[in-house]
Amino acid sequence: MDEAEREAVILAAEGQGIPAEPLGALFYAESGMNPLAERWYSQTKAAKAAIAAEDWDALQAIINLIADSGSDDISFGLDQRTWRWSDEFAQAQAETGKSLDELRRDMDLILAFRHDGFEAQYAADRGAAMFAPLYRQYGVPEALYRYNKPNGTATKSVKQHYDQALVWSAQQNWTDEEEDAMTEFAFETDGFYNKAQELGDDIVGQPIEAEHPVGNNYVVQFTTTGVMVYVRSLNQNYFFAAAR
Q: What is the pLDDT of residue 171?
């Protein structure tokens, strides 16, 4: 793993307030931590050759073949987001008014999506934005499985793939060298600290971020097993365990 990709993962994780390790596992599973990874269904070799030769008629034919097959398996970058199910696709639909089928075949938009996806930080931020709510709701490893199949159950082989990526990621250094390598978070207020003491470490786990406000009525702090929440209007502290 190059330093640029490592830094991209760290910054993306910090931007979403989640640990870098599971995010790194996600990108390793999706792309092998290769910022230039790309997949064009079963036509990847042919598509890459067409791009290298600047044979745009050939590439358009490949895109049409993929669309005609019923596949949406065109994806790029660390996070391997597919064009069809990306925010960029939805934005293009809103801005152009084109049909789903037209956008699935739009070579210029796909190539622009590819160009952006090959930027490591862009792809890391994009992947982290999708992964963070899954991480907060499901924890690890289920959040990784859900990234692959948001509305269903991942296959056994897919789960094993992500599990192996977690093993790889646990062996990497995700410390931001610009910060104190020994940075640790704590329950800063008496309310969260007392709630943690009441429930115990086995339930609450350890803080993985600093306390921070969400809107005007809430203060939250995620832990290794869930999230602490202070509700100002009720003057009450709560702990919600992540689904497992």
A: 94
